[in-house]
Amino acid sequence: MLHVISLVVALLCVAAMNLLIKAGARAMEGQEQVGASLSLLSMIRTALVNPWIIGAMICGILNFITYMYALKKFQVSTAYPIMISVSCVIIAMGAAVFFSERLNVWQIAGMVLIFAGVWMIVGMAKTA
Question: C-alpha angle 48/51/57, rounded to 5°?
């Protein structure tokens, strides 16, 4: 059961990481407009003190640790598709909520198909 929880935490961390990177990029974009365009080195320095980016890095580390633990029990051919596909759905929903990105009917249909695919992967893993 702990392996299942670690896989869920891993997928939540990867989703949170992506949403935090978006928030950090938006914050840096605001700084760019105030202080002219940032050079690559300046952008890296700005990112490393941006709380959104720092949060994203922490989520990335937590994702690595919890996913590694989950892989002790799960086959990578089962765990990875579940983690990536479900996190895509969470990211799309989070972007709609936090960044006012619109979801169209095709995206929603795709999310339904993703859940159907995850259901099939989990079902196949149980029978194997």
Answer: 65
Mean pLDDT of the chain: 90
**What range defines the domain where residue 62 resides?**
2-127
> Cα–Cα distance between 82 and 70 in angstroms, integer?
12
Total domains in the chain come to 1
The closest of 15, 3, 22, 16 to 114, measured between CA atoms, is 15
The alpha-carbon radius of gyration of the chain (Å, integer) is 17
Better-predicted residue by pLDDT, 34 or 68: 68
Distance of CA 111 to CAs 30, 74, 87, 90, Å? 32, 23, 11, 9
Residue 82: which of 70, 95, 100 has the closest Cα?
A: 70
What's the whole-number mean pLDDT along residues 33-44?
67
Q: How far apart are CA 81 and CA 59, in angstroms?
A: 19
Matching residue, tokens 């089962």: 78
**33: pLDDT strictly greater than 60:** no
